[in-house]
Amino acid sequence: MAHYSIGALSRATGVKPTTIRWYEGEGLLPAPVRSEGGHRVYGDAELRRLGFIRHARELGFDMAAIRQLLGLADQPDSDCTAAHAAATAQVAAIDAKLRQLGALRAELVRLAAACEGGRAGECRILETLADHAHHGCADPSHGRVDAASSHSTSALLG
Amino acid sequence: MAHYSIGALSRATGVKPTTIRWYEGEGLLPAPVRSEGGHRVYGDAELRRLGFIRHARELGFDMAAIRQLLGLADQPDSDCTAAHAAATAQVAAIDAKLRQLGALRAELVRLAAACEGGRAGECRILETLADHAHHGCADPSHGRVDAASSHSTSALLG
DNA sequence: GATGGGGCCTCTAGTCACTGGAGGTTCAAG
DNA sequence: CTTGAACCTCCAGTGACTAGAGGCCCCATC
């Protein structure tokens, strides 16, 4: 069994050392064996687990969802329906985001097209922004490109 | 000229009182007149300015971009090219996000389809996540649905 | 004029998933 | 044995708010 320093694990997975340590603090990775001098020493099990986490993060699962997915993966006899539900919920979340961003994009394109440069006092972009009509956007997480729609994906329970 | 309490301003704009106070602390809104007892009292100028900010936030502009847009709006003689650039940059940011989310969605749908329920030990979802192949995702802000891709939109300077 | 309760005040801390830095120790190559 | 890169811990900061504690103000009603 191979063993890795935190730097080697980082290179192998593409997850930064600081992030690996943070995962450990959060309990996503077990606290590893230490060398005499106190350096972390990892094995293949940690390599796989970290890869799992990274892959799930790339797919947009939040930490709560990942915790549950790891829990499932740790108990091979459990029912994987929850994993399916999580994936489906994540697709739904992405669909919502896609719809929202599409609408946003359309409005921005209209906005950008309306301005031909010149004095800010006559700029249609600035005018439109200043127009204080509440043109009802029901979604509370409005249109932020990087919205912190917070409580998102931990729908494993649903 | 009408005047409003912070609560009235909140109802008029849809921005929460705490957020209004936070904007003031950040310098996006000027510190308003106070009543004898220390309560904030706003006028129509603040109402318009807050509406401007809210609208820009809905379109996904980050605070740095909004600061610049406000600066432009405050100086009617300035050149509004920067506003146009900001809108265009925002469209580009959204396009990137849309592309990324689309790819993500496809992978998730594949993932979800591969699982028919049953033992977690045989779940294709969990297996795929555990598969540690680095299938190169160049974007460092990976696939998070609510990515904090941080330094995003303040491209007014570009 | 007293009272009640809702709105307002400030200040602090928490969110999410990390990231960066300071200040010090360990490891491995030469 | 020396160097310097990598590692250690701890703490603070990111963005854009949000929530809560503990206390003050304001207005309407009695």
Observed structural traits:
6 helices; disordered C terminus; elongated; two-stranded antiparallel ribbon; DNA-binding; mainly alpha; 158 residues; homodimer
Write up this protein.
2 copies of one chain form a homodimer. The first copy, chain A, is mainly alpha-helical and 158 residues long. Helices cover 54% and strands 3% of the residues of chain A. Chain A is built from 6 helices and 2 strands. Chain A has helices at residues 6-13, 17-26, 44-58, 63-74, 81-113, 124-130, and strands spanning 33-34, 40-41. In chain A, strands 1-2 form a two-stranded antiparallel sheet. In chain A, a hairpin with a 5-residue loop joins strand 1 and strand 2 (40-41). Residues 135-144 and 146-158 of chain A have low confidence and may be disordered.
> What count of helical segments of chain A does DSSP give?
6
What is the terminal separation of chain A in angstroms?
39 Å
- As residue ranges, the low-confidence spans of chain A are 135-144, 146-158
Order of helices and strands of chain A: HHEEHHHH
Radius of gyration of chain A: 23 Å
- The number of distinct β-strands of chain A equals 2
- Order of strands, main sheet of chain A, comes to 1-2
Average predicted confidence as pLDDT of chain A: 82
Structural class of chain A: mainly alpha
How would a crystallographer describe the biggest sheet of chain A? Answer: 2 strands, antiparallel
Q: Please bin the fraction of helical residues of chain A.
A: 40-55%
Shape call of chain A: elongated
- As an assembly, this protein is homodimer
What pair of chains forms the biggest interface? A-B, 71 and 70 residues
